[in-house]
Amino acid sequence: MLANPSFHVGPLPRQSPPRPFQSLLHRRRRPSIPFSRRRSLRPRFHPPSSFALPLHANAPSFRGIRASSVTGEAEEQLGFSPRPHSVKIPVGDREILVETGHIGRQASASVMVTDGETIVYTSVCLSDVPSDPSDFFPMSVHYQERLSAAGRTSGGFFKREGRAKDHEVLICRLIDRPLRPTMPKGFYHETQISSWVFSYDGIHSPDCLAVTAAGIAVALSEVPNTKAIAGVRIGLIDDQFVVNPTTKQMEESELDLMLAGTDSAILMIEGYCNFLPEEKLLQAVEVGQAAVRSICNAMEALVKKCGKPKMVDAIKLPPAELYRHVEDICHDELVMALQIRNKMPRRKALSTLEDKVLNILTEKGYVIKDEAPLMPEAIIDVCEDEDEDEVIVEDGEVDEGDVHIKPVTRKPIPLLFSEVDVKLVFKEVTSKYLRRRIVEGGKRSDGRNPLEIRPINSQCRLLPRAHGSALFTRGETQSLAVVTLGDKQMAQRIDNLVDTEEWKRFYLQYTFPPSCVGEVGRMGAPNRREIGHGMLAERALEPILPSEDEFPYTIRVESTITESNGSSSMASVCGGCLALLDAGVPLKSSVAGIAMGLVLETKEFGGDGTPLILSDISGSEDASGDMDFKVAGNENGITAFQMDIKVVGITLPVLRQAMLQAREGRQHVLGEMLKSSPPPSKNLSKYAPLIHVMKVKPEKVNAIIGTGGKKVKSIIEETGVEAIETQDDGIVKITARDLSSLEKSKAIISSLTMVPTVGDIYKNCEIKSIAPYGVFVEIAPGREGLCHISELSSDWLAKAEDAFKVGERMDVKLIEINEKGQLRLSRRALLPDASPDKTSPKQRSSSPAKENSTGQDIEQSKSATADTVSSDSIPKNSSDKTPQERVSKKVVTSSRDGPYINKDRQRKNSGKADTEMKDVSSLVNGEAKISG
C-alpha cells in the first residue's frame, strides 16, 4: 500500500457522481463565473482536528520550522544534531550545573541539573494530536527517586521501583503547582514532565532541584508557557536564612520552606515551622524570591540559545462572540442563582441554567438580533452546489430542459457552537459574575463579608470505642477525626531515598470520598490530592505533640471528610487537634487552620484596584478566585502553610496582608474550638493499650530476649501482654491491654535484669537442685544461688537431701557475692532461733570453694560448723535479741503470685544488725553457684 502512488492520507477530494456517456459528448457551455464567487458556492468541508493539524504538530522534529534548507541553525532546531550546552547558575553559597542537548535528545526538551553529587534528570514531551478541550490543562508530572542513586535497593520483595511513594507524590505536586498557572488557556496538547533522581550524595536534597529542572525544561521546550519558573528551599539556622541548605543543616533548621516563582512574582509556597511568627516567615519568602529571581535571569540566556520555538499557533480559544451570547441568555438568572446561599441548591440551579444555555446554543440555535447571521467555520454551509447540469448562460437565457431556480428571501441560519466551548465559556462567565458580586456588593455567595468566618460547631467523644474522636463542622465543611494509639508495631515504616528515619510514630491519613460533595465516583487508593492534604494537616499538628519519652505511643489520626465546601484540609487540622485531646495526648498547645482567598484585579469589577483578601473561602470562591492560601498555627505563630496561585504570581505586600488576616481568623477559630460540646476527655481511653517503659542495663537486654527470642516470646505467652520491645540502650517497652498482665511481665523482666545486692531478701524461692554440700535456690527466673548446708538450718545437718527436696520453697537472704558474681544465700539468717554463737572467727576469712567440691572440703565445712565463736566476734553494743530476730521482723509476707523481692538496704538505725548478720554468715566455708 505504501508503494502505491495513488494512496492518499487525509480526506478524499470531492468527486462528482458518474455521468452518462451521452452527457459527456453533449456538454453544455459553462458560464463565466468570477473566481471569488465560485469559491463561495462550493460547500465548505472542515475535517476533524486530526486532519487539520499543521505540519509542525504532526512531526515533533519539524515543529515551528519554516520550509527551507536544513542547514546551520535550522538543523539544530530540527533536532537532527542538538548541540550539548551547559551553564552554571549561582544558588545561595554555591552553583548548580545545568546541562542540555546531551541526554534525551528526542524529547521536546531535557535537562540534567547537578548540585554537588546529586543529579536530577528531567524531560518534557508533548503529544502530536491535541486532546479534547477542557478547563484543565492536560499536564502530568512523574517524579521518581531511584534507590540505586544512593547505592541501595528496595527493602521489599520486589526490587524494582513501582508505585510512587507518598514522598514522591508530594514532590510531583511541588512541580505541578507552580507550572500550571503559567500555561495558556486553549493549549490542549498533552504535556508530560518526567523527572528521575539518578545520583544522590546524601547532602543536597533533590526536591528543590527537581522543581528548578522542570522549570528549565519547560522553558526550553515548545510548550507556550508565559514565564519561566524556578524553585528553592529556605532554612532558618541560628537566626540566619540559608538558600538550599544541606540535609545536615536542615536537622537544625527551624523552618522548611519550599518556594517557586518567576522573576517578578511568587507562584507557590509550602512549608513547616515551629510556631514561627508571620514577620519572620515573610522575611524568608523575601530571601527565597530573590534567589528565584537570580535563577530565572540566568535561565534567559540559556533559553535564547537552546530554546525551541513555542507552539503559539496551537492555542485554540472559544469564539469571542460566544461570551456575549452566553451573557445575553443567562444574565438575570445567573445573578439570581449566585445569590443562593447553600451549596447544593446553588449547584443545581447553575446546572439547570447551563443546560438551558447548551440547548439554545448547540441545538435550537441562537440568532443575533438586528444583525446578519454569521457562518461559523465549524459548520458545513448549506449552499448551492456547483453541478455540471445546473449552469446559467452568460446572456441570461436558459436552455431547454434546465430547471430555473428563482431567487427567494434567505432565512436566518441558526448560529451553532460546540458543546465544549459553551461549557468553558459558561464557567468563565459564572466566575466573572461571582467575582463582581464580591467586589461590587461586598457580599459573598453565602452572604458573608470578606472577613467573616462561617459558623463553627465541634463535638468530641462521638465514637465510644475509639481512643479519641471529634467531629468538626465549619459551614458546609465537616471532618470526622479519629485517633488510634499503639506501640511501635503500629508505626509507619519509611523507605525513601532521602529520609533516614525508619519509622514514623505520628501520621495523619486524609480521605475525601465522592459522597462528601454529593457525587458518585470511583473509590480506591488515595489520590495525589488526598496525600497532599493529609501531609499538610500532619505537619501542622506535629509540633504540638509530646516527645516519645513523655508519651511512648504511636499516634495515628484519620480524617474523613463527610461534607465539603472548601477548606477541608484545615478542618482536618482543627478536628485532629480536638481528637488528640480527646485521646488523652498531652499536647503542648492547640492549633487551628484557615484558608484564605483572593480577588486580584478588582478594578474591572468596579473596585479601586486593591486586591481583596477573603477569609475562610468556600469551594466556589476557591474555583473562581485567584489564590488558595492555607495557614495553620496558634495565636503565637505558624506551624504549616501552603499557597497555590491561579494567576501568574502575587507580590509580597499581598502575601503580607493575607498572613495578617489569617492570624485573626485562626484566633477566632481557636476560640470556637474551646466551645466544643462535649469537650475533649483529656484522659487515656480505657480501650487504649497500656505502655510501660523500663530502663535496664544495656548488657541485660540479651537476658530478656534469650536465644533466638525464645525468652521474650515465653514471657509474652505466659503473661498475655501484646508486645515487649527492647532497645540497645536498655529501654524496654511493655504493651498490654490490662494492668494485671502488665504487672506480671514487669516482675519477670525485673527479675531477669535485676542487680543483686548483699542484704536482699527473697521470699518463697524454689529449690532447683540439691548437692551434698547445699541446695541451689532460684531467687528470680534464670537466677540461682547456693545455700550452703551450713546456712540451711540453725541445727547441724549431715545431708541436705535429708531435710529438703527439689521443688520446695524457702525464704533466703543474699549474704555474699564473690568476685565471679556467684551468689551465696542463707536460710539460717532468717530463722528466729538462729544464734551467732555457733560461728567461728576462723572462717570469717575463709573463701568459698569451687563448685565441684571434694569430700575433704565437705568434711571441713562440717567441722567448721561445730566450732564456736569467741566473745570478741560479738559486738559489744548488741541488744538482748539476736540479729536474726531483729532481721526477721523486717521481712514482708510472701506474695501469692510468686517470688517477692524486698531490698533491706542498710540504714543508720539498722546498720549494726546487718553487720552482725554478715559476721555470722561469713564463718561458714561453702560454695556458691550462679546460673543465668
TrEMBL record:
Residues 878-888 have a biased composition (Basic and acidic residues). Coiled coil: none annotated. Residues 759-828 form the S1 motif domain. GO terms for biological process: mitochondrial mRNA catabolic process; mitochondrial RNA 3'-end processing; mRNA processing; rRNA processing; tRNA processing. Keywords: Chloroplast, Exonuclease, Hydrolase, mRNA processing, Nuclease, Nucleotidyltransferase, Plastid, RNA-binding, rRNA processing, Transferase, Transit peptide, tRNA processing. It is an enzyme of class 2 (transferase). Residues 25-45 have a biased composition (Basic residues). Its EC number is 2.7.7.8. Residues 1-45, 826-932 are annotated as: Disordered. It is found in: Plastid, Chloroplast. One of its GO terms (molecular function) is RNA binding. Residues 842-877 have a biased composition (Polar residues). One of its GO terms (cellular component) is chloroplast stroma. It holds the Pfam family RNase_PH. HAMAP family: PNPase. Belongs to the polyribonucleotide nucleotidyltransferase family. This is polyribonucleotide nucleotidyltransferase. It comes from Acorus calamus.
